[in-house]
Amino acid sequence: MDKTWNPIRQNGNPCYARRVIRVKPDYFALTETEREQYRLNLNTEDDFRIRQIVIKDLFGIVANTTEELDAIQDTFDDGQYLLLNSTLLPLQGIGEDDFFLNEVLPTDVTLLDFDTVGDYARDDHRFQEQARKQENADYEIRAYRGNIHRCWARLTIDGTFHYADISSLAGYVTDKLDEVGFERIDELIPCHYVDGPEHGKRDDKGFVYDKRPDAGGLEGQLQALRDRYYTYMGERYDALLDQFNTSATCVYLRDRTRHNEPHMDFVFSNAAALDAVRFRYFVRDCQRIAGNSAEFDRLVEQETRLALDFLASTYKDIMDNFDPTVVKLRRKRKIILANEKLKDLL
């Protein structure tokens, strides 16, 4: 194991204690509950000072303002971020795995407000559905079926820092179908993107992003194939949610460690699996109901094969029967890149 990124896990570690005490001298006089509350409700000043100390200790770099600190972190490579994130984890996480959910939560809400992953998933589902309803008054709010929005986390597994992805099985499979399906579409109807007439123009709020596909005259067929595949994926996602909610309750653990960057996928089969895993005992609970990897691989392979078969037959149908005079009405959207830094994408 490369010790340069092996994390400081134990809260009693002298390095951990020294850094926290310099910011909050009475930290270790608090109860564990009070310490968790302090860490997860860290005020802006203390957050800056802790990061300032850690970056100076790790890299010998001095930052005097939040802006300087942000600018320094913008220059970090993956290895530096790994060392920084693993060092900060005991200052951020909860429970026996130092679990840290790397997602934006509403003001005054922390991970301590959710006992299980299912509690978080239901709350996030409610938020997502309400947001869709606000955007489109005709949208019909859908019931929760264990369809957790894919999220990122950091934690320790057997004492080693890991990045993690948390998802539902239906969502994981659909993401795979998106990946392999659009690769196949690119093979069937190759295209590249060219600047549209508005691309790069200045707007009141930023820059207009207007890239359009050039498929050698097959743009209509390409869009038709994409549209039908989007519909297919949506239907499969709904069907899989229903199917898995009546199947075995388990969590599939998928090791995605690459280039000394430890990464684990936690794929929850259904709503019951999400309810069975507590954030404070995340790894222990996941291991208790861990699913069979071979079964998982067979499922993904089967759904991939079905999706590619669908694309093959749909492509043939479109190429044989496409009518360019039939134009599907679409809601026109204008994409604005508001941040000056994003101008590099233009």
What does the model show?
There is one protein chain. The chain has 346 residues and is of the alpha+beta class. It has two domains: 92 residues, no CATH class; 186 residues, no CATH class. The chain is 47% helix and 13% strand. It contains eleven helices and ten strands. The strands form three sheets. The protein has a five-stranded mixed β-sheet with strand order 1-2-3-9-8. A three-stranded antiparallel β-sheet has the order 5-6-10, with no helix packed on it. A hairpin with a 2-residue loop joins strand 5 and strand 6. The radius of gyration is 24 Å and the shape is globular.
Shape verdict: globular
For the largest sheet, list the strands in their spatial order. 1-2-3-9-8
SSE string, helix = H, strand = E?
HHHHHEHEEHEEEEHEEHHHE
Unreliable sequence segments? 1-14
Distance between the termini: 42 Å
Key traits:
disordered N terminus, 5-stranded mixed β-sheet, 346 residues, 2 domains, alpha+beta, globular, 3-stranded antiparallel β-sheet
